[in-house]
């Protein structure tokens, strides 16, 4: 019997890639918040954090592909290729597998738009990129419902840790957005400051520091 036809191997491969992919998704979200807030990690310049964020997300996507392929090839349950791209059509665990399919579709969308970032409007890229916050809970709930690993033991503890990390990162990202004034308001203030400076002949810094 070949290695690829060995049900036990495919079962372990499917579970392992799913779990590690979820862990890397968590790390991707945390690093994304660090990048957005222009933070740094020990031993990394800011561009290094950006590169790490990109590479971790790509590795997570690759593992997700392996996770999907191993589930289809295994044949232990009825999951077809169509089920991996069209949500909620699988004959096996329709709802839970459908959530995983949605996560796959969002991952593909985020990866493709990231590769095309230089050719897309910033608002389009950013809007699509924000869907990664929906991607994680979809993958997490999919694992709880369709898998057998997240319900107990050290895997459950790791899953809870990932959930806490994502919640904290999301809260930090949201608080940063609430404190940041809209770009239109900042532009209007800058224009008003420039006009005042021209009208009075005083440098703009004199008004900014008052």
From TrEMBL:
It comes from the Bacteria. It is a multi-pass membrane protein. InterPro entries: Fe3_Rdtase_TM_dom (IPR013130). The chain crosses the membrane at residues 12-35, 56-82, 94-116, 128-147, 153-174. Residues 17-139 form the Ferric oxidoreductase domain. It holds the Pfam family Ferric_reduct. Signal peptide: none annotated. GO terms for cellular component: membrane. This is Sulfoxide reductase heme-binding subunit YedZ.
